Each structure stands twice: as structure tokens, then as C-alpha cells.
Amino acid sequence: xxxxxxxxxxxxxxxxxxxxxxxxxxxxxxxxxxxxxxxxxxxxxxxxxxxxxxxxxxxxxxxxxxxxxxxxxxxxxxxxxxxxxxxxxxxxxxxxxxxxxxxxxxxxxxxxxxxxxxxxxxxxxxxxxxxxxxxxxxxxxxxxxxxxxxxxxxxxxxxxxxxxxxxxxxxxxxxxxxxxxxxxxxxxxxxxxxxxxxxxxxxxxxxxxxxxxxxxxxxxxxxxxxxxxxxxxxxxxxxxxxxxxxxxxxxxxxxxxxxxxxxxxxxxxxxxxxxxxxxxxxxxxxxxxxxxxxxxxxxxxxxxxxxxxxxxxxxxxxxxxxxxxxxxxxxxxxxxxxxxxxxxxxxxxxxxxxxxxxxxxxxxxxxxxxxxxxxxxxxxxxxxxxxxxxxxxxxxxxxxxxxxxxxxxxxxxxxxxxxxxxxxxxxxxx
Length: 430
What we know:
By secondary structure, the protein is mainly alpha-helical.
């Protein structure tokens, strides 16, 4: 049956290789089962329910990717967008988490439609590479600021907006140790370095009496507090348009970039360089996002950590299915997830931020027409605490610098339209 479904022989792999690859991928991305509930809990959501929603949404995405698209690519609620969901949409803009979930649902439906009508390729090809790289790096800096805040290293200040916290306290020290553990283990090529760091720091906090022991294994908590609590009608108001766009836009490029990166690593692209079954792979991502919003979690997306599984020999959807099964088994470890303090996830957040900022190396910093918009994105995202605002300022500045430089002919119509829409949004709705 496995041979018939996944075509193992055709892809020159075996069940053993695929299982090992699936375990490898899961270990590199399992940190999300600790980080996501803690982050969305700050938005007022039930920690246990989000834990369950995270695991089930990830499993749904992995199963669709495995059985339908037959790719060794795993999915789970994405980093960056979960921070945007909590700290910008809910805490800063004042929307309820139910309305924010409605925004995630709508973005998922739009993503499905874009994939079905092949509009996705046109959108991706029309957005300049510099803006795409800048947005990824800006999200990285946004996560870095949240990591420093959660660690207590950066705190608010009436005089200077932000300032250095008490770095002699145990929380910042443990957070820093967590980051150093990740770097040390990752540098040695040890899979699961991020998850190991979270467990080590939580164990140290437990020994120091900073967290209370709640057990390791139990029956999964109830998902009822967040299940089908999304407010779609509330998400349709004009003020949410930029939020929905940010959810969609970031997921679109994050997914596309991940799919290509994993396919190239595993030599899964066709001879002409195209991505076979691309529509099915995108369907897994968008469907999991819709399902996740109904369960009670932020946008679900493909994980670039899947390259670890591909490097371990994964070549088919069986790898993704194994990851999905492991996410379901993780449902039994909710007490462990509930014990993890915010500063234990600060190191992983900062580590992910570093990875996301790596794209800046591809920017031509001698070309001010690209450098200035990218810098604006990277600075405004963390300082306005909003991915949506960073994207908006990026598009507006990209058009503006070319307009004032007499290079208006180098712009494509889609970028100009988006810039004008963002200007209109700020002018009429703030």
C-alpha cells in the first residue's frame, strides 16, 4: 500500500529512510508546540486549547501534503505570523482574538482561490526580490525584539521608549543560555537543538523553583475554548483588510520559498526546473490554515526545517505523514508544554530571527533604490510592532524612491497599485 501511495521505488527511497526523515524533521520543528501556545496565550487564548489546535492543524497539513501532494514537507503554525496575530492585531490594534482568527480564516480561503486560479505565480513574479527579502528579514527583527522582551533583556522606558532590563535576574540569564545551547548544538549538526534548548531551560527553571511541576504526560486538554470561536463577520471590517493582506502575503511568499528550497535540496524539481504538483502542495498549506483557524491557531505554513528531513533521505509524502503522526502523539505531552516559561522560548525566537535575517546578504546595498525600502521595512516592522505596517511602508517607499529618482518606468503596475492602496488605507483609516 505504501509503495502504491507514495511511489517509494520510483523516488529511490524506502520506508525506513522515510521514517527516519520524518522523525528528523519533527525534532527540528517540534519547538512550535511549546512556542505557539505560549505566544497566543498572551492574546487571551486558552493555552491548552491552542496546544491541541497547534498539533492537530500541523497534522492535518502534513497529512494533506503527504497523501495528496506526496512531498516530504511538514507544516505547522508559522513563526512570525503568530507574533503578528498576538502582539499587533490583538494587543496593539485592539481586535479580539476571535476576530483575528476570522482574519486567518479569510486569508486561507483567499489563498485557496489564488492557488486554484493560478494567480499565485503572477503575484510572486510581480513582487521585487528586494521587497521579499526585506519582508523576511523584517519579520526576523520583529521576532528578535519579542524574544528580547520575553527574556526581560529589553523593557519599556518612558524616556527612551526601550531600555536595558535587569540582566542580572535569572530569567534573562536562562534565556541567554538557551540561545547559546541552540547555537552550540546546531553548530555540531545535532537535530532538535531548539527543542532540546527549551527542555533544558525549563528543567533549570524547575530546579530553581521558577516554574511548578505539572507532569509530563496526560490526556490532551480540551480544544473547546477556541474551537469554532472565530469571528468572520468581525474580520470583514475595513480596518482588518491590511491584517488579512499581511496574513496572506507573508504566508504566500513563505510557503513558496520553503517549497522551492526543500525541492532543490531533495532534487525534487522537474528537469525544466518547474515544481510538479505545486497546486496540491499549496492546497495543503491553505487548507491547514483554514482548519487551524477553526481549531484556534494562527496561520499554518510549510516549514523550511523540512530540509533536515530531506537531508536525512526523505523523498516522498511518507516523511510528512510520519511528522503528522508525531504531532498527534505530542498531544499527550500537554503538561510539559504548560510548564515552559516565556524566557525558555526567547532563545528559540532569537535563533529563528537570525535565520530569517540571512536573506539580507542578497540585497545590493550599493543600490539605494533597493537598499532604502529594505532598510525601512526592517526598521519599521519591529519599531511599529507590526508586520502589516512594515510591508506597507516597504511598498510605498519602493515606489516613492523610484518616482523621485526618475525611474518610474522600472516599476510594474501591481507594485504601484499596492502602494496606492496602502496610502489610501493610512489616509482614510489610519
